Amino acid sequence: MYKHNPENGVWMRPDSRPVAYSEGADAEARLYQIICAAEDRRTLSPELAAQISDWSTEYHFSPARHTLLRPLAIHNGQRVLELGCGTGALTRHLGEIGARVDAVEGSLPRARIAAERCRDLPGVSVFFDDLAAFESPDPYDWVFLVGVLEYAPAFSSAPDPVADTLARAARFLAPHGRLVVAIENKLGLKYFNGCSEDHLGKPYYGLQGLYAPAQPVTFGKQELTDRLARAGLASARFYYPFPDYKLPDVILADEAFDDPGIPVCDLLPWPPARDYGKPAAPSFSELLVERELHANGLLDQLANSFLVVASKSVLPPPHAAPALAWRFEINVAPALASQTTYSLSPDGLVAHRSRLLPPDRDAVVQAGPFTLRHRVGPVPVESPAVAVDFLRAFARHGTVPPCLDTLIPWFRRLAQQAASGILDGALFDATPFARLEWTADTPIPLTGLLARSLQQLLAAVGLPRDTPDICAALRELYRIRAMPEPIDPLDIAEDLRIEAEFQSAIRGTP
């Protein structure tokens, strides 16, 4: 039925029909040229990441795309059907982990890109066909609809396009198979904050239920649950990618919401969700509102995206228990890319960090005179309460000086640990955000940590963070603390230069 075209690597039928979905011939030709020219086409390819220059190239080449699938226990040799594979960003990852992948794409230019991207992966076959017409005699362990279900009304003539798409996808499942749906939440917090609806580019569109026939459509959690149930998928397990499913930094499992005492919000990424259609002009701090939503049991309902794993019968969790959440450090050099898995123990939340690529061991970079170490294995879980207090103060006052009072207890603790202005290198990452990922092998200056911390805080509230801005905030901090002022602009400039060198080192950029 399907014949392989050796010229483009795509399987197709003589009567395969294209769908009218395209970013434009020039854009897709550019993507194809980039893939053809790339020597390294791996998921974590720095070569492809270096080609990112706009949203289109970021979406297709960001290594963060694949983190959406990392919590799922997809095993070597399992059969996977990816309906709507696009240019193969997820297809590539599935092939790399040993899955036997049939990837279907309704646009021939995009199918050609996906096939070229995965040409060296023998377990991957890319098909050009209308998703509604695709046929396969064998069932699958996994069927994926990632960023696809919402387009059903635009490309299906069925009376209920969404129901028809779910039913067609479900019929490919083996008895133990799972259907994976990733889609935006029309009630996502970022849409209340003025972000454009992702498909139609209009603010508040989905929130008001303005979708017309033949337009892309998204759903709230209850609507999506009901849709899946009506398609014969009796079990639906939700995951919550933050800031969204396109480029996840953190993914929460449903179990993370079972116990109100689990500090879910401490795990969420600090950059707010992006508006992919225009520069963002937020009305409120999503980071602060998320904490209020969680306190009232609403965070899962207003997450920006859903990742749903559905099945015809109740199956064991598709992730390795007892994990509750996953954090990814992905926009770094491949050797530093990591996953931190959070789980609940009798003593509270615990975390374990591992490399995405072997070997799974500590990594070291050099920044100025400092040797900095990124550890794997058990890692501490700390609360960013100091940063949260600073952000709340800034939301009240709108300027930095009144907010510095919130930093005094943290500053006092550091000052008490500093001998002659020098701190133990283990405190390199002891900023208000409390990520605690890096340590220095040698002592560090207190002012360097303070400068780094203020730079992060000013960035979080969208203010300039150059040397004069940092110096002014530091002087005010020392004045409030009634301590001698050791602030030399040249020293602070050097601290910030070392920080910039550190950031370049971990990203693998010159």
Give a short summary of the structure.
The protein has 510 residues and is α+β, with helices and mostly antiparallel strands. Helix content is 30%, strand content 20%. It folds into two domains: 3-317, Vaccinia Virus protein VP39 (Rossmann fold, 3-Layer(aba) Sandwich); 331-510, no CATH class.
How is this structure best described in words?
The protein has 510 residues and is an alpha+beta fold. It folds into two domains: 3-317, Vaccinia Virus protein VP39 (Rossmann fold); 331-510, no CATH class. 30% of the residues lie in helices and 20% in strands. It has 15 helices and 19 strands. The chain has a 14-stranded mixed sheet. Helix 1 runs parallel beside helix 5 (108-117) and helix 14 packs across helix 15 (489-507). The longest helix is centred in the last third of the chain and has 19 residues, at 489-507. The radius of gyration is 24 Å and the shape is globular. The chain starts with a strand and ends with a helix. The model has no long low-confidence stretch (mean pLDDT 94).
